[in-house]
Amino acid sequence: MVVMDPQPLPSYEDLLVLVGVQAGRIGELEELVGRLVAENEELRRRVGAGSSSSSPPPSSDSLYDRPTPKPRGCGAAQGVGRVGSRMSRG
Fold first, then answer.
1. SS (H, E, C) the chain
2. Gap between the Cα atoms of 73 and 32, Å rounded
3. Nearest Cα to 79, choosing from 88, 90, 66?
4. For labeling, which of 6, 26, 73, 86 is most exposed (least CB within 10 Å)?
5. 15 domain residue, yes or no
């Protein structure tokens, strides 16, 4: 008994076309992977950033990562007690 193939085998030329199509698709996918890797790196960089350069609130920062607050002056540095100021008249 002879079994017939449901489809004939592709020709050499058909296989060359198929390989060309697949090579083009592989190139497109490699380009997409490159863009996604770059986007992923950018997003990971943003996640690692503190609130001073991103949108999370400062309360989400680690206490150890926060910059030291600038000292607030008092007295003469703030203009309190200067001659002629409202505070010194009295």
1. CCCCCCCCCCCHHHHHHHHHHHHHHHHHHHHHHHHHHHHHHHHHHHHCCCHHHCCCCHHHCCCCCCCCCCCCCCHHHHCCCCCCCHHHCC
2. 55
3. 88
4. 6
5. yes
Residue range(s) defining the domain that contains residue 44: 11-49
- Domain count within the chain: 1
pTM of the model: 0.46
Domain assignment present for 40? yes
**Residue 32 forms part of a structural domain:** yes
**Residue found by looking up tokens 């960089």 in the block:** 45
Inside any domain, residue 71: no
Q: Which amino acid appears at position 27 of this protein?
A: G
Buried-state track 75-84, b at ≥16 Cβ within 10 A, e below 16: eeeeeeeeee
